[in-house]
Amino acid sequence: MAELDKFLKVVVERKCSDLHVAAGMPMMVRYLGEMTPLTNQAVSAEQSKQLIYEILSEEQQRQFEETWELDAVYSLPSGERYRVNVCREQKGLAAVFRYILAEPKSFEELGLPPVIEKFVLATQGLIVVTGPGRSGKTATLASMIDHINTNRNEHIITIEDPIEYLHQSKKSIVSQRSVGPHSKSFSNALRAALREDPDVIMIGEIRDLETMSLALTAAETGHLVLATLHTSGAASTINRVINIYPPSEQAQAQTTLSECLIGVLSQELIKQADATDMVAAFEVLVNTLAVGNVIREGETYKLESMIEVGSKDGMKIMGASLTELQRAGKITPEAKQEFSPRKESG
């Protein structure tokens, strides 16, 4: 057993999300969104390298030494899995280990809005899940894939970096590919996936114009595409998608997006009022006919107000979600204030 394994076990036992190992610092864990020391003494540069290198394969060590960065997955002998990012810092090596649940949670367990079940009933189009880091986007995507896998006979392809949740084929056939071991890039993997008779394609993260263009093409040509973006808010997500294109191509991108978008789910994870767990707040944009017209015409400044009045279509503004959570006693007034996009007073 690697020396680091006993510390990774603590992550599970204490219901933490992450373990941080960095030269010159004590080991830290993230619990309910906050960093807490796990050890009293700082880890030396030599200790940091020894702890991290012990859990890397020779190939991973070689890759890290060539690129100075590494994304991977590490499994304990008892089966617990962690997403790993290794990097170099001023004082030495550092790594973050994020615990991955063995099974995706259900829509109900995640508290997803009811309209999400309608989203995944679609057979073609684009669903975008957005939010900052540590907002639960990966868990939401995994839940969507598991729902489709459980209820439909489809060919599902996931493209990730790295593979996090392991999906066993149920009603569907699930093929999972990782950037690095299985493909050179998201765009290469997505281009290949389009030739592999997929029904559903999940893209771990859209990072560039080529991947975005391929995702829209896939959604436009009879595939259901699920993807994440690092944006906050549903309306700003639409702007991000459009602005990734050069100005000369934005009008066409607006038209394509207006036709193939199913909806956008933006989320935040917030510490519960009783400090026992995290709870999610959501913003939802549904691509109704009116929303599609606004996207096509480039009038995205209208989207926020359309979300506010679109509850009958399943839409919800982030402020309304935060208000519901506070009224239910799930979050504090201070948390509502902190996460409110408009920084409401009172």
Describe this structure in words.
- This protein folds into two domains: 5-100, Beta-Lactamase (2-Layer Sandwich), CATH 3.30.450; 107-339, Rossmann fold (3-Layer(aba) Sandwich).
- It contains 14 helices and 13 strands.
- The chain has helices at 5-13, 45-54, 58-67, 107-110, 115-119, 137-151, 186-193, 209-220, 234-243, 250-260, 289-296, 303-308, 318-327, 333-339; strands at 18-22, 28-31, 34-37, 69-75, 81-89, 92-100, 125-130, 155-160, 173-178, 200-203, 224-229, 261-271, 278-286.
- The strands form two sheets. Strands 9-8-10-11-7-12-13 form a seven-stranded mixed sheet, sandwiched between helices.
- A hairpin with a 5-residue loop joins strand 4 and strand 5 (81-89).
- Helix 7 packs parallel to helix 8 and helix 10 packs antiparallel against helix 11 (289-296).
- The termini are far apart.
- The mean pLDDT is 95.
Instruction: Quickly name the level 1 CATH class of the largest domain.
Output: Alpha Beta
- Uncertain regions spanning at least 5 consecutive residues: none
Helix coverage percent: 25-40%
What structural class results from the helix and strand content?
alpha/beta
Q: Globular, elongated, flat, extended or rod-shaped: what is the shape?
A: globular
Distance between the termini: 53 Å
Mean pLDDT: 95
> Into how many domains do the coordinates divide?
2
CATH-defined architecture of the largest domain: 3-Layer(aba) Sandwich
- The CATH topology of the largest domain: Rossmann fold
**Count of runs of 4 or more consecutive helical residues:** 14
What is the CATH H-level superfamily of the largest domain? P-loop containing nucleotide triphosphate hydrolases
- In spatial order, strands of the major sheet run 9-8-10-11-7-12-13
Q: Mind summarizing the main beta sheet?
A: 7 strands, mixed
DSSP summary, beta strand count:
13
The fraction of residues assigned to DSSP E strands is 15-25%
